Each structure stands twice: as structure tokens, then as C-alpha cells.
Request: fold
Amino acid sequence: MWHQYIRQEVQIHLKNFIYPLLRPKRVAVFEACLIGIVSGLAAVILKEGAGWLGSLRIAASLKYPPWLLLPIFGAVGGLVAGLLVERLAPEAGGSGVPQVKAALSGMRIPLNFPIAMVKMFTTILTVGSGLTLGRQGPTVQIGASLAAWISRLVPTSPSYRRQLIACGAAAGLAAGFNAPIAGVLFVVEDLMHDVSGITLGPAIIASFVGAVVSQMLGGESLYLDKSSYLDTSITGFLHLKEIPFYIILGMLAGLLGTVFSRGIIATSIFQRQLKLTLPWRIAITGLISGLIIASLPESFRNHTGLRELLGSNEANLKWSFIAFAEHFLLTIFAASSAAPGGFFAPSLVIGSALGQIVGICQSNVVGIEQPTIFALAGMGAFFCAVSRSPMTAVVIIFEKTQDFRLVLPLMIVSIVALLMAEKIDKKSLSDRVLDFKGLQLKKEKSANDYLSNIRADEVMHTPVETLDFNLTLDEVKQKFSNSHHRGFPALDDSGLLVGIVTQTDLAYTRKRELSGDTLLKDFMTPHPMTVKTTDNLSEVLYLLHQYKLSRLPVMEGRHVVGIITDTDIIRIESEQIGKTNLGTHSQKPSYIVYQTRSPQIGNGRLLVPLSNPSTAPALLKLAAVIARQRNYELECLQVLIVPRQSSPDETVVDTTKSRRLLAMAERIAKDLKIPMHTQIRVGHDVADTILETIKERHISLILMGWKGDYSASGRVFGSIVDTLMRQAICEVIVVKWGARKLKEEEIF
Reply:
């Protein structure tokens, strides 16, 4: 007996304490935090490892001849890194950002734990050995690879795994730069082009956690000394005289950034023609980089120190030119060798040198001594020209300086650089690298882009089963037991939506121990969330997920015309997986050439197709009786048929007689004080045109005349009426007039 007692206690505790913690939202938050932690730790290990090896290289160059030690250090480090990449994880070569971008676009690019480890240690080797590459690009791939590995530990959907990979990429960049906002923006702006809450929420959490872990354990990643430019006597960094120079800086950054990107691709093609293996390409790159750096002043041996020098007021025009040329050429050579390492940090150094040059020239012409501000603006401009991510470029520099006065200059130069770069070349460096590897990216779309092409009224269930809000609890329970639906809209005496009742509400009545004669309006959910017929399914899906709903009433004006459930969304997504072309709609069977509209004040619509002027008045008066009884609006339709080979929207038709008929119908409706809508449609088939009208106008009832002839075999009422009775989603009333015409008082 004791073991049964223990089992029961365990089940109770699991139900009360553990299971609530495993709800999807909490699991997503936990996964985002975990991804942020591991990405932050990886960024710290990468930073400390590269810093240790770089310090060892610099210290050794002070003891031994730099012209000998630096080339050997670069060649050996590059050779070992190349061997590790070639033997263990070929996908770990290069920056890593193009690989993540391709994976997020749906390509089969491996992202796993071994790739993350190889990327980490080989980047330590290349960056620490003196190659002019950065750590921040690799941290994006490392974070994404670790996130993909974590996502495989718990079975999940491919779309959600994609969101987790995006979280890892955001956390990696955030940890690499200690810039959490920039990490999120980079994912939205460059990798996924998706601003949905499903993407942003976890990415924000992962970026924040990654940046916090990196900053707590590793300190500053990209240190910019504010004391070098901060002057409390200056209220702003943007002066009217400087604006032309900021524009010039943006144009130069856009031009040179494009040359930089094309230079990497051109050099990659050249190195491929040499048919050297990856280890030897990286080794030769390290050798040449070491020789060139050894011939320059000591400050050039430390990339971080060089960046700080360019970000201060100590750099002059000569050394700014030298730093720009050295970093520009060596980074092209290093990146084209496919060495593990990014081009984000080198872009900032190159942009800083370019900004210093323009800033010094500006101070000589205008007399405003602010070359450091131009250096910071140049960082953002060149970064934007290479990555084509203007928001990320602005935010990275802002997050590192935490000075709002820099935002305006950064925005000017970044936008000008972007426009200039896109004028020359539409693609970013990442896209060009993917093209070079033979990976053609499709046009970026959000995960739910195809849903944006589908309207709610194309998917909704209609007519809707509704409940009167004066029904008792027992009557509502009986309604649920007789129906397969799990929820119903509740209408008031005027037919307007006032609430919704679901099985959850019924379960709540049992907890409250309500009596069977309790009215529905006392336990329903009042003021339910709704969507309009014109809303797309992306908006519907967002509301269902955001508010944890299972169904949404679809409204046209103040009236319920349909309902969409989560099952409908699943069905649409299943069709998409089955490669159904949801976004491509076939040609509509009809085209509206004339229409009139009245106020939408009824609880439904009664459609009256008109064809015979002699019977139209009696049919309209009968329709008016039904419409008045049910509080419906009238919808009169006249169909004009054109040949099959003619397009309805391109065929000229005469609507004179049809307009006269509809004008008569409007006069009758006006006399009877019933709202009426009219329309003339051109189509190939009467039945198809009427069915399309029923769907588009959300018709509740159709009233039509019948001549009484039996034409085709197997058809009771003829082709048109039989088709409508089989396929119409509303009630159908067929009227056959006798030999004696009904008098008006008999109709009413």
C-alpha cells in the first residue's frame, strides 16, 4: 500500500508543481535563457582564448625579431586552423553568418555541437595568430549551432527550431559585441526579415541573457573610450557645416564597402583557381599578414589597440591612411581564404580609419575639431555598407558609446552608405558569399507569409451555429451534447454578438455549482475577441497564439458571418506543407461591373438573383416579407453571361436593361423600407457566379424563381438550381409561380 501512496503523492506534486512549469510559453522562455547562457559562455571562451593567444604573440614579438616571429605565428596558426576545419567540420570555415542565413532560409546547412566547437577553437587560432578577422561573426554561427543542438534535445516543429536558431544567432552577436539590442535587430534585419512576436520574444530574451553573461564574465568586447570625444560643453555632435562631410563620408563608405565585398569574392575566385587546399590557403594568408604587420609600427600588431587608437584624438592623417589601407587589403585576403573569422570587427576598424580621414579633412576646412565623432560615424557607415543592416549599424555604436548625440550622425552616414552601396550592388557580402558557394537564397519571407495572402472569409465556417444569450445552462449543455463544436457565439435579442461560450466555460459552471436554470448571459465570456472578414490569416494566427484562443468569430460590420478555429489554421498549414499554392488564386469566375450599397443594419442577407422582369416584382415582394421577418438585408444580383473564351473583366457588356431591373428593385425596397444592395456581375456560368456572390457577400439565404422544367437527366430542378442546392453554403428557397398571379395582399 505504501508504494501506491508514494505514487499518488508523486503524481499530485507533478501535476501541481512540475507540469505547470512545462507550459509552452515557459518552455520557450527557459530555452531562450539556456541558449543565451551557452552563447554567452562560448563568446567569453572565444574572447579570452583569442586574447590570450594574441597577447602571447605580441609578447613574443617584443623578445624576438617581429619580421620572423609574426609570419611564423600566422602561418602555423592558420595551418592548424585549416586542418581542423578541413578534417572535422568544413562548414566551420569563413565568417559563419552566410551559413546561418542559409540555414534560416530553409537550406540544409549543418548546425550542430561539433561545428560550434570547431568554429570556436579555430577562430581562436586565426584571430590570435594575427589574421585581420573578428570574433563576432563566428559567435553568430556558434550561437546558432548551439541553439540547433539544444533544439534537437527536445522534439519540436521545424518552424519552432528555426526560431531557436534565430535566438542563438541573436545571442551570439549580442554576446560578441555586448550589445543585446543589436543582436535582435541583426536577426530581424538581415537573417530572417521577420518581426513577428514569435521571433522577437525569444530572441530578445536570448540576446539579453547572452550579453549579460558575456559582460559579467568577459568584460567589454568592443571598448570605445567616451573620454576621447566627450565634451560636456558641447550640446550636440551635429553641426550644420558638418552635414556635407557626413554625406561625403557615407558616400565613400558605400563605395568602398562595395569594393571591399567585391574584392573578397574576386580574391576567393583567384584562390580557388590556384587549387590550394584550405590549410595552405590560410597558412599563406597568415604568413603574408605577419610580414606586413611586422613592417608597421607596434600598435598595428594589436587589432584592439589599433581600433582604440583610431577611436581617439591621437591618430593623424598619415597613420589613418595607413591603417585603412592595411586593414582593407589584409581583411580581403584573409576573408577570401575561408579562414574562420568574421568581417564585422574589421569593418569597424576600416570604417573608423575612413571616418578619421574625413574628420581630419573637415576640421582643416570648417575648423570644428571632431575627428573622433567622424571615426565613430565611419564605423557604422562601413558596417552598413558591407552588411546592408543600417539599424544594426546605428545601434551597435550607440550601445557601445551610450550617447544619444551620436545617433543623428550615425543615421545620416548609414543611410547614405546604404543607398550608395545598393546603387552599385544590390546584394550584401553574406549574399555574395552564398552565391560564390552556389547557394541561391530565395526571397526572404516570414514564416507565415503565405497566410498573409489568405483572407479570413476564405477559410471561415459559415453559416455559424449561434446560441441565444437567454438560454439556460441545461439548454446550453444539451446544445453541446448534440453538436461536435466546442464553442458557440452568443447573440442578444437583436442578433448582435455579445459573448462566446466554450467547454471551458461549462467546466467553470461546475466549479461554481451553478443551477440548471442559470442564463447563458450570466456565465458566457462577454465581449469576445473578433476578426473582420478582410483580416488575413497571419493576423488571425497571431491573435489565436497571443491570447491562447481556440476560435475567433468573423465579423462583417456588427454581425457574425463566420467562425475560424485553430483546426482551420492547421488545415491551411498542412496544405502549405503539401505544396498547395495558397498564395496563387485561380481566375475569379465573375467580375462586378455595377453595384450599389445600403447601410449594413440587418442580421443577415437574402440574395435574390433576378433574370425575368415579369416575375421580378413578385419575387422581390416575397423576399421582402422574409427579410422583414428575419431582419435581413436584400441583395439583388443580375448575371450577364459572356463566352468562355472571353475574360469577364475584359469584355464590354451592355448593362442598360440590367440597371433598369435593379432600379425597379431599389424602388420596391425603398417603399418597403428594407435595406437593399444591388450588383451586376459578368461571368461564364450563372451558378458559379451566384456561388461566388454567396461566398463574398456572406449570404444567409437565397430566394430564386424556377420555371418548372426538367432539363438534364439526373437533375431535379435543372442545372442552375440543382448546382446551387448542392453547393451553396446557405439556405436555398425555390419559388415556382402558378398560372394565377398573386395579389400583393396575398404575398404579405
Summary: Residues 226-436 form a domain with the Clc chloride channel fold (CATH 1.10.3080.10). The chain has a mean pLDDT of 81. The longest helix spans residues 24-63.
